[in-house]
Amino acid sequence: MTLFRNVVFIAAIAGLLSGIAMAAMQTFATVPLILAAETYENAAPANHDHDTQAANAGAAATTPVVEAHAHGEDAWEPADGFERFAYTAAANIVTAIGFALVLVAVSEALGGILSWRQGLFWGFAGFAVFTLAPGLGLPPELPGMPAADVSIRQAWWIGTVLATAGGLALLAFRNSLPFALLGVALIVAPHIIGAPQPVSHGTAVPAELLRRFVVAATLTNLMFWMVLGAVVGLLRSRFTVAGEPVLKRGLA
To answer: Is 145 helix (H, G, I), strand (E, B) or coil?
Structure first.
């Protein structure tokens, strides 16, 4: 129980803090762009179905979760202002705790994060795996933009995350040319296969608005992962006795 309690505690605190930080950054960086895109979406015909990433619609832009929704008179959405911020912050915190659990478990299995500085490197690795690599094929989307089938996009996203994580692990923890080549092949493979694309790329959303959103979403995700990694490193050092990893103490 000591192992489980320590991992969950560190992940919960780190996820809470980084999730709040993410929501604050999005309020200034991505939410205004989403609201601007919604004006173009609302100007389109009212009765249409389309898929869009739930994280983007809620300004999270960090998870593979997608949501299919239809716009009509009875469609519900949070009101602008505090209500929208509260829902976004709650989604960010839950997502951040999940990512923190993965980060703590994987890092402990490989020796643990020894300091906040080392946590920054782990945070950047998380950014590369969960945001940068998938974003090369499926960049963050604004409301009103066309997208391929949800299930196909989810499958490609998950495959890209797993391949990138495996490739980076081989490059970082296997000092061998064959393993390094295999790692590079894993990282490149999803992009050779190619991300699923919509039938048509036509949209009323201006290209400049989309470009600004992709840049803003990518940078806020980078900062999110840096904060998450650093906080995990700080908290872990508080739960380490004489440099002994949390997992080893929990198993003792």
So the answer is: coil
CA dihedral 120, 126, 128, 131 (to 10 degrees): -120
Residues 6+ apart with CB under 8 A from 48: 70, 71
Q: What is the pTM of this model?
A: 0.80
pLDDT given at position 47? 41
DSSP state of 128: I
CB 60 within 8 A of CB 88: yes
The C-alpha torsion from 25 through 84 and 76 to 47, rounded to 10°, is: -40
Q: How confident is the model at residue 61 (pLDDT cuts 50, 70, 90)?
A: very low
Q: What angle do CA 34, 40, 46 make, to 5 degrees?
A: 110
Helix axes 2-29, 82-109, angle to 10 degrees: 140
What is the phi-psi region of residue 78: left when phi exceeds 0, alpha when psi lies from -120 to 50, beta otherwise? beta
Single out the residue of 142, 147, 145 nearest to residue 33, CA to CA.
142
